[in-house]
Amino acid sequence: MNLCKLTSAALLGAAVMCGATVAKADGGAFSWTGFYAGLDVGERWSRASVNIPNYAPTAQHVQSGNGSAAGGFVGYNYQFNNVVLGIEGDISGVGGNSVALSGNGGTEQYQISESWRSSLRARAGLAFGHSLAYVTGGAAWLRYSTNYLPLAGGVQTTTAGGWIAGAGLEHAFLTKGNSALIGRIEYLYADHGTSNFVHNGPSSVAYKTQEVRVGLGVKF
3-class SS at 8? Predict the structure, then answer.
């Protein structure tokens, strides 16, 4: 958590310093058209609706968790007038974890642990010179596992698909022609549907996440 916050501050600090020291060299109009790639870090929050039929009438419970994320992104934008359309793919290692009483009437707990997430999204935005405001949405995937504590029935793992949507702001620094260093902040909400597991008995998890992240990239 602290490492994620320090890294986020470093990324934003680098972008601010770059913008404060260097202006666009040729003074012409900047275009967002082109390929770009970069790295990002962020914080995540999860909400899981768990159903364990064998534990009726206390079969259902909700558990929440949080954790950090770090990864990379790559994409392409096309600008006409001040409208920018694009596509982006990203992948992150994630450290979200949540634990709650399983509902069997004792101290047994149900644990959910994330490992990675990725998405493929369309983007649409408005450019204001060196700044870009956009919305985004598409398909998302999350790799996570479930288990009981104390461990019983082993660890079950799934890659859950779903949809993702959000919005963000970007700013171009250190511009040289149409190449630039890009700083960004972004919010994403994802719904990964319901996944089924079998330990000593069946369980199902409906999983949703939110994420706020900052990034630093290069536009080519």
Answer: helix
- Give CA separation, 118 vs 93, 162, 199, in Å: 9, 11, 26
Range of the domain at 151: 2-219
pTM of the model: 0.86
Secondary structure class of 11 (helix, strand, coil): helix
Number of domains in the chain: 1
pLDDT in tens, 128-151: 999 999 999 999 999 999 999 998
**Within its chain, how far is the Cα of 55 from the centroid?**
33
Q: Give yes or no for a cis peptide into 150 (omega within 30° of 0).
A: yes
Q: 5 CB contacts (<8 Å, ≥6 apart)?
A: none
pLDDT score of 21 more than 70: no
Cα separation, 98 vs 32, whole angstroms: 40
Res 128: pLDDT: 95
| Vertex 74 angle, CA 73 and 77, to 5° | 125
Cα–Cα distance between 15 and 32 in angstroms, integer? 17
Q: What CATH number does the domain containing 105 carry?
A: 2.40.160.20
Rg (CA), the chain: 21
| The pair of three-digit structure tokens given for residue 28, joined into one six-digit string | 């012409």
